[in-house]
């Protein structure tokens, strides 16, 4: 038994004398310290929840040997008494660019963009940089390391923050003394983000939806490549395959992007740790459903300087509100059980980390959870709990020594030990000399007051006749020095005091007078130091404004629910064979139209008096570009059939609310017209306050945007030397023919492979061609941007050649010239009411276009293609009456039933019929009148817009904004840092909108 105990002791306590060092030392004599160091009588946080009072921490050779209250201390031990002090594990920041040189931006802009890669042996897209390894580019940054050490950090994860697939990251210990041990893991994480690489001018992807599509294609290609189907070596895919077992981190930088990245993860069975931005609290229910773990920055916005009323009025409520609510993000995430680590990322200054963290704690963030988010959580996420993040036996000796509880305002970090190497933040042995003294210098007496920080005290000296003397005090290693300027402002003479502090009650030393004579000085303490408390800073936290859905102006305090409503005595525009019904009741129940007729009753219904008012089905906009995030066009290729607007619906665009106020309930969100074959569409219902997935029309038909004319051949792209094929209208036809032929061959290749039951090399999944195959098989329908009759005929000829039908020609301003051909082909038309002459190819447009096509037997709709016009589509419909002598009932169908037919959703919406969705609008007047206003707008029985509640919201918005401005003014009075108010101009997309600065966060 004694032999076993001796063996255990030897294994734990005796230095490993056979461990050879192989790093040479040429700067002095090597002196390796194998001694133990014991820190005694400290409050030790082994983990955030395992705490030892008056405990001992024993370390040796950079590792924790033991912690406890009865640790056996070996003979060769340096003992440090930490009575009254605390020990915590050093912090971990798993998301930094520490030691990484910022990648140099490629010179040039769209004028010099390329469409194909210039690299050989790598993936075809240069924004996929998975072959990059952080440690290959790493250079230890000692000044930055010292910033992090002062903030309490001991370990950082680092990577090159550039590109969509960014390559691997490393784990580095902030050990300023021993470079041989700094590298904890050369490859520990694999990184992704929604940003292009600044090192490449390759045009694709130029939009967020393009990035989503590229990530999907990469994952399909990776699977195909790993299965040995490729004929060539791809270093990017090879690296991706090698990095699959690493920690996967996705820099989403926005709450909605976190939801988007989680969709990719779910599709491919991936487990991303999301690096957020701090606005997750605004959509915490949806965030929680992702089951993702997060890395969260705490770069709270500075207060806005709203002292100028004109500037204050420029501020959006959502920006003012975010400033107010941002400090609660960590509490909200914690309350919802979301696991997260903290990061210094996005901070202007590392020292702001502690300031912001203490602010979050004041707003309810639990201190134990805060410590976990800096220690055990990141260690666990990195799979390194047995090395870092706690002071358990065998872990690295990474710890900080503090004056008290780590998250108290007055607590100081004295030392930060990393792998057993000490970094001094503040002198642990500094003597507190602050207080009031009677000072005597030779035969002259003064009043001396020492205030300020214990490590950098301030001196205030007054003569016997109460004249203030300018003085500068410093203390180092218990030696104090004070330089006192003469009271005579005409002289530049000084008296210098120096002395060694032995007793803070009685200071003394020698003084060198202005004339060079030496005399003695002494100071007797008369009063202790009492810290002056700023009364402004004692004030309570700001009142936190309630979160709304969405969290901006006109948002709802809670998510809306359906009600049973009974509209009484309305003029009902049915869009059915019954026509317009006078003095008619409509019952809405369970989100559907339950009954239409006279004298309907339902005891559970809320009665809506609709006498003298008009009830219609909701307006449907066949062509819209609102509520799209970061790019409506993916113009990096001449075909972008793989991208989808469904990936980038912005559920928080205030234009949604404005659409509802104009009676619009459903829209088709279309890709722009930058290329002949655009992206897939999204049909949405404007359920204001719901998330994007809830807005998507359930089981919606599949659509895609095509385009003809000037835009696709880059005629209007400015003086940027466009080089992408096609550059002519002839070339546009060849693009269609080429892609559809390739799609046919692609489908045939898969059919042949499947007929062999998977034998042989599998074809590559091509999302672009797969989408075109859906068109050939009439599973996806085309909405084509069009103007000139010759091109309209051309596309129908291509469709006939490949045996499919063009569903809708949109814009179609020369449709009146070829209406007969369109009817023969089976195409519909979605046009403008009276747009013309805004570019050369629309010179032949006429306001009679819609009625002419209607009279020719086509299904005709009017669309907006514009955020402003979509709010007045009821008036656009009226123009069909003016220009074409169309009946009011048929004209109204131009913006309701007809677009529903074009979108293949007229079985559910577009008319008032029992069983259809209760997507309804109550108007105060004939809906075709310029005086008509929507009073209520319903979607599936939920009132998403109510004119009376809108008035109440406007009052509430003004009140809240005024209260927030008051809080901001108070912050400035407290001396807080402020920023200049800036109005953020929202970019409204149109068909030809291009992203010049591509999604930079």
Overview of the molecule:
Helix content is 24%, strand content 26%. It is α/β, with parallel strands linked by helices. It has a 9-stranded antiparallel β-sheet, with no helix packed on it. Strands 1, 2, 3, 4, 5, 15, 16 and 17 form an 8-stranded mixed β-sheet that branches. It is elongated, with a radius of gyration of 36 Å. Residues 1-19 and 996-1001 have low confidence and may be disordered.
In short:
By secondary structure, this protein is an alpha/beta fold.
Distinctive features:
1001 residues, 8-stranded mixed β-sheet, 26% strand, disordered C terminus, single chain, alpha/beta
The unreliable regions are 1-19, 996-1001
Ends apart, CA distance between termini: 64 Å
Number of helices: 23
Percent of residues in beta strands?
25-35%
Average predicted local confidence, pLDDT: 92
So what's the overall shape? Answer: elongated
Which structural class is indicated by helix and strand composition? alpha/beta
Strand order of the largest sheet: 21-20-19-18-26-25-24-23-22
* Total strands: 44
Radius of gyration: 36 Å
> How much helicity do the residues have?
10-25%
Largest sheet geometry? 9 strands, antiparallel
Secondary structure blueprint with pairings:
Blueprint: H1 2-13, E1 36-45, E2 51-60, E3 63-68, E4 77-81, E5 86-89, E6 91-96, H2 142-150, E7 153-158, E8 165-173, E9 183-193, H3 208-226, H4 235-242, E10 247-251, H5 255-268, E11 272-275, H6 284-289, E12 293-297, E13 303-304, H7 309-312, H8 317-325, H9 329-335, E14 340-343, H10 352-362, H11 367-374, H12 376-381, E15 399-402, E16 413-418, E17 421-424, E18 435-441, E19 444-452, E20 457-463, E21 468-469, E22 471-476, E23 479-485, E24 494-500, E25 506-512, E26 518-528, E27 565-573, E28 580-589, E29 592-597, E30 606-609, E31 614-617, E32 619-624, H13 654-661, E33 664-669, E34 677-680, E35 682-685, H14 692-695, E36 702-707, H15 729-755, H16 767-776, E37 780-786, H17 789-801, E38 808-811, H18 819-825, E39 828-831, H19 849-855, E40 860-862, H20 873-884, H21 888-893, H22 897-902, E41 920-923, E42 934-939, E43 942-946, H23 947-973, E44 978-979
Parallel strand pairs: 1-4, 1-5, 6-7, 9-10, 10-11, 11-12, 12-14, 13-44, 27-30, 27-31, 32-33, 36-37, 37-38, 38-39, 39-40
Antiparallel strand pairs: 1-2, 2-3, 5-15, 7-8, 8-9, 15-16, 16-17, 18-19, 18-26, 19-20, 20-21, 22-23, 23-24, 24-25, 25-26, 27-28, 28-29, 31-41, 33-35, 34-36, 41-42, 42-43
Helix pairs in contact: 3-4, 3-5, 8-23, 15-16, 15-17
């Amino acid at each position: 038994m004694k032999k076993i105990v001796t063996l255990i002791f030897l294994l734990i306590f005796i230095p490993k004398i056979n461990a050879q060092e192989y790093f040479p030392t040429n700067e002095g004599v090597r002196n390796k310290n194998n001694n133990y160091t014991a820190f005694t009588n400290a409050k030790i946080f082994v983990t955030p929840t395992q705490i030892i009072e008056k405990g001992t921490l024993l370390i040796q050779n950079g590792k924790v040997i033991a912690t406890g209250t009865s640790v056996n201390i070996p003979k060769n031990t340096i003992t440090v008494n930490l009575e009254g002090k605390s020990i915590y594990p050093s912090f971990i920041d798993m998301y930094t660019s520490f030691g990484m040189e910022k990648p140099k931006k490629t010179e040039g802009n769209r004028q010099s963009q390329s469409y194909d890669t210039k690299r050989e042996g790598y993936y075809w897209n240069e924004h996929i940089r998975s072959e990059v390894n952080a440690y290959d580019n790493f250079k230890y940054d000692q000044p930055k390391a010292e910033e992090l050490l002062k903030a309490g950090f001991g370990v950082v994860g680092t990577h090159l923050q550039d590109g969509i697939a960014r390559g691997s990251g490393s784990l580095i210990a902030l050990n300023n003394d021993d470079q041989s041990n700094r590298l904890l893991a050369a490859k520990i994480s694999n990184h992704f983000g929604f940003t292009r690489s600044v090192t490449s001018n390759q045009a694709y992807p130029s939009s967020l939806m393009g990035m989503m599509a590229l990530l999907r294609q990469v994952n399909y290609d990776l699977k195909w490549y790993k299965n040995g189907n490729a004929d060539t070596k791809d270093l990017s895919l090879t690296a991706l395959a090698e990095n699959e077992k690493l920690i996967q981190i996705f820099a989403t930088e926005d709450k909605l992007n976190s939801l988007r990245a989680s969709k990719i993860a779910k599709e491919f069975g991936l487990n991303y740790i999301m690096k957020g931005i701090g606005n997750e609290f605004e959509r915490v229910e949806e965030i929680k459903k992702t089951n993702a773990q997060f890395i969260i920055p705490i770069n709270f916005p500075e207060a806005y300087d709203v002292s100028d009323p004109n500037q204050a009025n420029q501020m959006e409520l959502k920006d003012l509100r975010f400033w107010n609510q941002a400090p609660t993000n960590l509490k909200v995430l914690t309350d919802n059980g979301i696991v997260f680590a903290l990061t210094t990322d996005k901070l202007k200054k590392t020292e702001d980390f502690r300031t912001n963290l203490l602010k979050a704690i004041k707003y309810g963030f639990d201190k134990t959870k805060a410590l976990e988010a800096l220690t055990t959580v990141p260690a666990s996420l990195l799979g390194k709990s047995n090395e870092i993040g706690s002071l358990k036996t065998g872990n690295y000796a990474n710890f900080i020594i503090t004056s008290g509880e780590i998250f108290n305002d007055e607590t100081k970090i004295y030392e930060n030990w990393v792998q057993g190497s000490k970094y001094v933040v503040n002198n642990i042995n500094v003597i507190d000399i602050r207080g009031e003294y009677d000072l005597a210098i030779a035969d002259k007496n003064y009043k001396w007051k020492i205030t300020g920080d214990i490590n950098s005290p301030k001196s205030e000296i007054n003569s016997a006749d109460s004249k203030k003397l300018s003085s500068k005090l410093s203390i180092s290693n218990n030696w104090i020095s004070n330089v006192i300027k003469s009271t005579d402002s005409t002289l530049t003479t000084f008296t210098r005091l120096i002395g060694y502090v032995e007793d803070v009650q009685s200071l003394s030393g020698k003084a060198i007078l202005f004339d060079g004579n030496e005399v003695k000085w002494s100071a007797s303490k008369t009063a202790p130091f009492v810290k002056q408390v700023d009364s402004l800073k004692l004030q309570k936290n700001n009142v936190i404004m309630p979160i709304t859905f969405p969290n901006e102006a006109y948002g709802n305090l809670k998510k809306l629910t359906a009600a049973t409503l009974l509209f009484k005595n309305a003029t009902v525009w049915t869009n059915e064979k019954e026509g317009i019904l006078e003095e008619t009741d409509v019952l809405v129940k369970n989100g559907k139209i339950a009954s239409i007729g006279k004298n309907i009753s339902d005891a559970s219904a809320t009665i809506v008096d609709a006498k003298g008012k008009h009830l219609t089905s909701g307006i449907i906009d066949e062509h819209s570009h609102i509520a799209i995030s970061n790019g409506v066009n993916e113009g990096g290729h001449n075909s972008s059939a793989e991208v989808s607007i469904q990936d980038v619906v912005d559920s928080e665009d205030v234009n949604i609310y404005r659409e509802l106020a104009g009676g619009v309930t459903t829209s088709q969100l279309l890709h722009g017209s930058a290329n002949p074959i655009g992206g897939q569409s999204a049909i949405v219902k404007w359920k204001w306050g719901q998330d994007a997935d809830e807005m998507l029309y359930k089981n919606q038909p599949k659509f895609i945007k095509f385009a003809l004319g000037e835009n696709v051949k880059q005629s209007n792209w400015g003086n940027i030397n466009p080089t992408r094929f096609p550059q002519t209208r002839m070339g546009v036809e060849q693009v269609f023919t080429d892609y559809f032929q390739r799609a046919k061959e692609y489908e045939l290749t898969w059919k042949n492979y499947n007929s062999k039951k998977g034998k042989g090399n599998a074809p590559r999944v091509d999302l672009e061609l797969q989408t075109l195959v859906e068109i050939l098989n009439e599973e996806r329908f085309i909405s084509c941007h069009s103007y000139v009759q010759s091109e309209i005929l051309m596309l129908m000829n291509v469709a006939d050649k490949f045996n499919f039908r063009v569903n809708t020609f949109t814009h179609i301003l020369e449709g009146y010239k070829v209406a007969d051909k369109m009817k023969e082909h089976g195409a519909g038309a979605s046009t403008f009411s009276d747009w013309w002459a805004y570019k050369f190819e629309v010179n032949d447009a006429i306001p009679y276009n819609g009625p002419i096509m209607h009279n020719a037997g086509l299904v005709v709709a009017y669309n907006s293609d514009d955020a402003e016009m979509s709010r007045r589509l009821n008036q656009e419909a009226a123009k069909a009456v003016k220009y074409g002598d169309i009946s009011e009932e048929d004209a109204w169908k131009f913006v309701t039933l007809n677009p529903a037919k074009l979108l293949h959703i007229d079985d559910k919406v577009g008319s008032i019929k029992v069983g259809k969705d209760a997507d309804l609008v109550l108007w105060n007047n004939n809906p075709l009148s310029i005086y008509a206003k929507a009073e209520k707008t319903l979607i599936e029985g939920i009132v998403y817009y109510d004119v009376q509640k809108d008035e109440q919201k406007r009052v509430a918005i003004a009140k809240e904004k005024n209260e927030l401005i008051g809080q901001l003014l108070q912050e400035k009075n407290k001396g807080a840092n402020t920023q200049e108010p800036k109005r953020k101009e929202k970019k409204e997309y149109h068909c030809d909108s291009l992203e010049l600065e591509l999604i930079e966060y």
